[in-house]
Design brief:
Number of helices: 14
Helix content: over 70%
Shape: globular
Largest sheet: none
Radius of gyration: 21 Å
Strand content: under 5%
Distance between the termini: 13 Å
Length: 344
């Protein structure tokens, strides 16, 4: 009986969310004058139909997965952070500063230093709200949200000002990255090292939070801070640590996008991946293992925007609308499940 209840609690919300999402998506397509089934099939084909489609989906999975991990880790301590978008930008800006100072450097030197600098930049931008939370009690959701906009403005400033390349004919962007600063790609596609880092990071963090003493400590501090204090666990220090690691992951996502996908720093580099990562983390139940397939699903949804444009003449932003519908579907179903007592 208990096994049946656990299975129902795990499977039913997923199936119900999927059905509600398909219903909402079908309604959206019908309002636009298109046959839902045919368009859904085109979306699936566009995202997963062949090797090229898969490669373009995986290109989007890389930053989504890293940003999802950046949300899941703080959640293990009961923190809700929405700062991956800003941490991506700040990490990319830090990594770009290193690249611009070593334009003639060797790849064996530039690439590791670029990743390290971007990681440290993202970690710093993540640690700032961690310090605010630990020392001043500032809500981390609000502070990370505000810091997102500050990071975006900082990137805008440098690409319009001191780092603007005159050869870009007025376009606000830095100089193009040299070949030595481009992350490796695989199989002749745009799939890059950032995807490997994202998968490895998710697996390592799963092991750490599930089996290590630190992971157990996070659970104790999340569930009962009074017990944690009596056990000698430092909640404030761990808040700063998990927020810094969170920013580190998002910073890597930022420099990977800048290096491979854009080849230079420019405004709008994050492309909404920070918010997609938050969606993935939430839909996966804050599980490091589940965010991997969920990132593929959401990455495929975003990748299918081309199908919406080519076959239905819908704007690419339609994929963002569908992503929002997916989030709303999961939110409605999860709350309904709780009210019905499936998790009792």
């Amino acid at each position: 009986m208990n096994g049946s209840r656990v299975l129902r609690a795990e499977v039913f919300p997923i199936l119900a969310s999927a059905c509600l999402f398909l219903a909402l998506g079908a309604g959206f397509f019908l309002l636009e004058g298109h046959a839902p089934v045919a368009l859904f099939l085109e979306m699936v084909k566009s995202a997963f139909g062949d090797s090229f489609a898969w490669s373009e989906t995986l290109v989007k999975v890389a930053p989504i997965l890293l940003c999802a991990s950046a949300v899941v880790l703080p959640a293990k301590l009961g923190l809700v952070t929405v700062g991956a978008q800003g941490q991506m930008n700040f990490g990319a800006m830090a990594g770009t500063a290193l690249v611009l100072s070593m334009m003639n450097g060797s790849a064996w030197v530039v690439l590791p230093l670029m990743l390290l600098t971007a990681s440290l930049g993202g970690a710093f931008w993540g640690a700032v709200p961690g310090v605010f939370k630990a020392r001043l009690g500032v809500n981390e959701t609000i502070s990370t949200l505000m810091l997102n906009y500050l990071a975006l403005q900082l990137v805008d400033y440098v690409v319009h000002g001191p780092w603007k390349d005159p050869s870009n004919l007025g376009w606000p962007a830095s100089a193009n990255f040299p070949d030595a600063a481009i992350l490796p790609t695989f199989f002749g596609s745009r799939v890059h090292l950032g995807l490997v880092i994202g998968v490895v990071a998710a697996l390592i963090l799963h092991v750490l939070v599930t089996y290590s003493r630190w992971g157990i400590a996070l659970k104790v501090m999340r569930s009962n801070q009074r017990v944690a204090l009596s056990a000698g666990l430092n909640y404030e220090r761990n808040v700063i640590i998990v927020m810094a690691i969170s920013g580190l992951l998002a910073g890597i996502a930022g420099i990977a996008e800048t290096s491979v996908m854009q080849g230079r720093l420019q405004a709008g580099l994050a492309g909404g991946y920070g918010w997609s990562g938050f969606l993935v983390a939430w839909l996966s139940g804050q599980s490091f293992l589940r965010i991997i397939p969920m990132s593929i699903l959401v990455g495929g949804l975003l990748s299918s925007a081309d199908a919406l444009q080519l076959f239905a003449q819908l704007p690419s932003s339609s994929a963002i609308i569908l992503q929002g519908m997916l989030f709303v579907s999961a939110l409605v179903v999860m709350n309904w499940v709780k009210l019905r007592g499936y998790h009792a």
